[in-house]
Structures are given as structure tokens and as C-alpha cells.
């Protein structure tokens, strides 16, 4: 209402993008988009301010989910069972991540806070950009970034809780998603890819993350699809728990 011209131009651009086949993107257009609208922080203030307006919980603390003081008396395995049982009946994504694996993910996230993920669709793939903000990992589709730039809203947020990491050797994770754009097994696929690319022992796999963050002109988005297909995560996943064995 305040800027009808801007709205119309964005809608025209969105329609143009929708006419393109799923997974469409030329390398030149991709690099230009990343450089003009998505660097250095993909979501900046736009995503941070919209999370609380789009059905996401602002400042979602572990204490708001779990009685931390009470579970401190329990073993790591008992806490894992409690966490899994609690979320098993809920329509969401969750995991209990070993401390060593999260240490590696966290260290790499500081060096490479963003990455491009590929979500399998019936025809091709849809690309999502993931951006770390503290221990939260925010996702939005590449189409959103192309059409809305840094104001693109979150469509999925992964919350990581390291409060029990030192004492129990585990990091708890859960998520919130915009159900208009993603269902649970799709969100699970994106969450599993975080461990695939950030917790990998294969230098070739993590090199894709480094290239995306530090040498964008050399980045080949089709390499993400190749890595995803090789891992088997491109197959239809069972809804529910994120694997902590990746």
C-alpha cells in the first residue's frame, strides 16, 4: 500500500522466477545475486525482525522448553530419551548432537556462516540459503532472496542449545518452520545437510562451504546437488527425527 510501484515490480519479478523450471539458475546470475543482495550477511536485519512476526518464537530459550535444573541430575542418555520422546509426537524437526560434532560445526560456522542447500523437488531442486545467527540457523529460499533481498523472511529456523554440552556432552536442537513453504521431511532434509556439509570428515565436501563463503566466483551450485545425491539425503526422508549419525 505504501509503495505500490515497488510491490508491482517485485510481483512481476516473482512471476518471472516462477516460470523458470525448479532448480533453474545460471552461474552468472547466481554469483550476481549473491554479490548484490546476499553478501556479506544474507538476512541481516530483515530476517531477524521478521522471525517474531512470521510465527517464529523470539528468544526461544532452552528453559522455555525443558526444566534444565531438573535434567542436570540425569545422564546424557536419559536426557536424550526425554528430548526424543517429547518431540516425537510433535510435527517438527529435532536432534541430540554429540558435543564433538557440534564443536566442529560451530567452529566452521564462525568461519563460514552461510551456505547454499538444495532441497529435492518432484522436478529438480529448490535452493535455500542458510545463515547462522548465533546458535540459530535461519533458512530462506533463493527465490526469496532474489525477489526480496535482505528483507527475505525466515522459512525455517534451527535452534541449537549448548547449555549441557560441557557437563553432559550433548547439544540439543529443535526447529520452527513456516508450514506454508515447508513440511517436516523437507525441513529435516535441510537440517541433515547441515551435518553433511559442516560436520564432514571429507575435505572436498567442506571445501564447498569455504568456496561459497570466501571465493563465490568459483562456487559451482551443481556440486551441492552432486554431494547431496552421493550422500543419499536426496531420497525421500522419514518425517521426524534428524539423524545424529551423519
TrEMBL record:
One GO CC term, this protein: mitochondrion
Pfam name, any one: ATP11
Keyword Mitochondrion: yes
InterPro entries: ATP11 (IPR010591)
Keyword Cytoplasm in annotation: no
UniProt keyword list: Mitochondrion, Transit peptide
Entry superkingdom: Eukaryota
Annotated GO biological process: mitochondrial proton-transporting ATP synthase complex assembly
Subcellular location: Mitochondrion
Family to which the UniProt record says this protein belongs: Belongs to the ATP11 family.
Annotated protein name in UniProt: ATPF1 factor
Classification lineage: Eukaryota, Metazoa, Chordata, Craniata, Vertebrata
Amino acid at each position: 500500500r505504501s509503495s505500490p510501484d515497488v510491490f508491482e515490480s517485485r510481483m512481476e519479478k516473482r512471476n518471472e522466477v516462477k516460470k523458470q523450471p525448479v532448480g533453474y539458475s545460471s552461474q552468472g546470475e547466481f554469483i550476481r545475486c549473491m554479490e548484490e543482495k546476499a553478501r556479506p550477511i544474507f538476512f541481516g536485519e530483515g530476517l531477524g525482525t521478521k522471525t517474531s512476526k512470521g510465527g517464529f518464537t523470539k528468544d526461544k530459550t532452552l528453559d522455555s522448553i525443558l526444566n534444565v535444573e531438573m535434567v542436570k541430575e540425569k545422564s546424557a542418555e536419559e536426557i536424550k530419551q526425554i528430548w526424543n520422546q517429547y518431540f516425537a509426537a510433535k510435527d517438527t524437526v529435532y536432534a541430540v548432537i554429540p558435543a564433538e560434532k557440534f564443536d566442529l560445526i560451530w567452529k566452521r560456522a564462525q568461519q563460514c556462516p552461510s551456505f547454499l542447500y538444495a532441497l529435492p523437488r518432484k522436478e529438480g531442486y529448490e535452493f535455500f540459503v542458510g545463515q547462522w545467527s548465533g546458535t540459530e540457523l535461519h533458512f530462506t529460499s533463493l527465490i526469496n532472496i532474489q525477489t526480496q533481498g535482505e528483507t527475505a523472511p525466515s522459512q525455517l529456523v534451527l535452534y541449537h542449545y549448548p547449555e549441557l554440552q560441557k557437563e553432559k556432552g550433548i547439544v540439543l536442537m529443535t526447529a520452527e518452520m513456516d508450514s506454508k513453504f515447508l513440511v517436516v521431511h523437507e525441513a529435516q532434509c535441510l537440517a541433515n545437510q547441515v551435518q553433511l556439509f559442516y560436520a564432514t570428515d571429507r575435505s572436498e565436501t567442506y571445501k564447498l562451504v569455504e568456496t561459497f563463503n570466501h571465493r563465490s566466483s568459483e562456487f559451482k551450485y551443481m556440486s551441492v546437488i552432486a554431494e547431496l545425491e552421493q550422500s543419499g539425503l536426496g531420497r525421500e526422508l522419514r518425517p521426524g527425527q534428524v539423524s545424529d549419525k551423519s
